[in-house]
Amino acid sequence: MAAVAAHFGRDLEQCLAKVETIVAAARSRDVELLVFPDATLGGYLGDLSGTDAGELPPALPEDAPELKRVAATAEDMVVCVGYREVADGVHHNTAVCLTGDGVLGRHRKVHQPAGERTAYRAGDRFAAFDTPLGRIGMLVDYDKTFPESARTLAADGALLVACLSAWPASLTDRAPRLVQDRQSRLFDLYDCARAAENQVVWVSANQTASMGRLRFLGQAKVVGPGGDVLARTWAKAGLALAELDVVAEVARARTVLSHLRERRPEAYR
Prior knowledge:
Elements: E1 2-6, H1 12-27, E2 33-35, E3 59-60, H2 65-74, E4 78-87, E5 90-99, E6 102-108, E7 129-131, E8 134-140, H3 147-155, E9 160-165, H4 182-198, E10 201-207, E11 210-211, E12 214-215, E13 221-223, E14 229-232, E15 238-241, H5 246-253
Parallel strand pairs: 1-2, 1-10, 2-4, 3-4, 8-9, 9-10
Antiparallel strand pairs: 1-15, 4-5, 5-6, 7-8, 10-13, 11-12, 13-14
Helix pairs in contact: 1-2, 3-4
């Protein structure tokens, strides 16, 4: 499995060509699950101030030829990509999981920073779905800040969570180096904490470079069910690749302490 750190802008043809190049490189390394960042097709917003979203990403319907092209490129690989979806005149920040056989699952980002609300409508659910590689759930960047998001997917049987992000450095307290940035620390913290508290495998992809006022962190990674980082990139583009048996690793993590089984919901009200 692999998580992508890369930049994707407004030009759909360039985005698709980059997807095809990365899929080919991943296939040469026997990758079976490949997770791209949020806004893979058409890029993310250029500002989160809420006053000026700038040029919005192109909106694609669920049967868009661009998605069919990604599916054809994927062939037997399970691939997750993000884009701005239009459905019944409403726009969502959406992640879709597909193979050459078609769409396996779809997630519309639920939790929105204020600046997104001019461009996207919030989704309203978290649900895992079955794939040739087992049961998977998806989140879109800010969703992972909220523990309930990943917990709902794990409770729905997901052993692996793909988190697609366009996660920028802090806009209010920018550090001179990305590695020192507050948002950089939180991005890594959430990846490891969500994997460990749910005892799932976590595949986290992110945009790199800049768009408008936003400078994206990169830091794609694969995290094991004990919260240990198995592979990662840094700020530049790259592929975080790890090989593991998801079912076996999750079972091993839950051998003595099984967080889902040992929950006490009656005490949480």
